Write the structure tokens for this entry.
Amino acid sequence: MRTSTLLLALLTLGLLAGCGRKAETASADGRLKIRFQTDWFPQPEHGGYYQALAKGYYAEEGLDVEIVKGGPNAQVMTAVATGRAQLGMTNGDDVIVAIGRGVPLKMVAAEMQRDAQGILFHAAHPLRELRDLDGKTIMAGAGSIWLQMAQKKLGIHFNLQPLVGDLARFMSDPKFIQQCFVTNEPFFVRQRGVDAGALLIAQPGAYEPYRVMFTSDAFLIEHPEVVRKFVRASLRGWIDYLTGDPAPANALIKQARPDLSDEFFAYSIKAMKDYQLVLGDPARGEKMGQLTAARLETQLKLLGELGFLERPLTVKDVATFELLPPEAR
């Protein structure tokens, strides 16, 4: 189960800062080699990148992309800030907080219009909104920004248990509630015979962070066209993965994760569509890859009010919109 690795990443950043940035090299056919660091093990939530790789969209842009798998200690921001990877993806709020602490990063596109984190509950004891957590016990990541938002902004009071990476407690206790990804854990508990539901934490007007693609300030300054090409090919891959045949990407992911079933891929893809995570909500004017100044300003304000920012930040400090294709602006 994924939790924020921000603190570990920032601690590691100081140790690795002297390593310098890895020089860019070209492959035998002249394509520029790019390392793209993901936040977790290969899975459908990374499907657009694997689709772009499998169908040659990166190659068409002159890029030789290596998708570097993550995990519990992925340290995505550290890898990008120190040049061990040229681009990465993770929760947008974590990137903003890191920038506030002096880590030289910039968001360049949205992978998801809203984060896939959710709350897993038994159908017999449903949650319809975050306020339904009041007075209950939840297992969640103690450093999660959404917890602070729920407690300080919404006035919700609950008991917190440390998040562990298994579903044993949930399976055995019909009143148990825990943090999850709506694209993941609900499938596995239902597969084991438990009738469960999931509430998406991201809510319009309250807390709605992006999941983002980002790069280092140095790489962005030196190679803006490379970043533009990567973004363009990645968005093309995502649209194709979710609206076309996902088989090419799934085949690549299965090479690294043979434990994932076809049923899981189908569930996760459907969840991304049902929750409008990636392609966005047309009724709200959302588009694949889109970042907006208004939403980022709202996030900056919230993070500042909750005490997560060590210095004031503007939208220009955390993101650039110039490298998005016209249809995503």
In short: DSSP finds 14 helices and ten strands in the chain. The radius of gyration is 19 Å. Residues 224-243 form the longest helix (20 residues). Confidence is low (pLDDT under 50) at residues 5-23.
